[in-house]
Amino acid sequence: MAQKTYIVEGRQFRTEADYRRAVHDRELIERLRREAAGHDKKKLEQLYSDIRNGKYKFLTLLGQDFTDEVEELLRKKTAKGGGQRKSAGSKEGRREGKKSGPKIITKKETKNEQKLEAFVQEELKKREKRRRLMIAGCLAVAVGCIGYFCMYSYYDYRARATYSELSALKEKPVLASANESPVIHYTLDGETEAREVLDEYKNLLNKNKRLIGWIKIDDTSIDYPVMQTSDNEYYLDHNINQEYDKNGSIFMDKDCDVLKPSTNLILYGHHMKNGQMFGDLDLYSSEEYFKEHRYIQFDTIYEKGTWEVMYVFRSRVYSEEEIVFKYYQFIDALSEQEFNSNMQEMAAMSLYDTGVTAQYGDRLLTLSTCDYQEADGRFVVVAKKVSEEG
Question: Which of 31, 210, 347, 367 has the most CB within a 10 Å radius?
Answer without folding.
Answer: 367
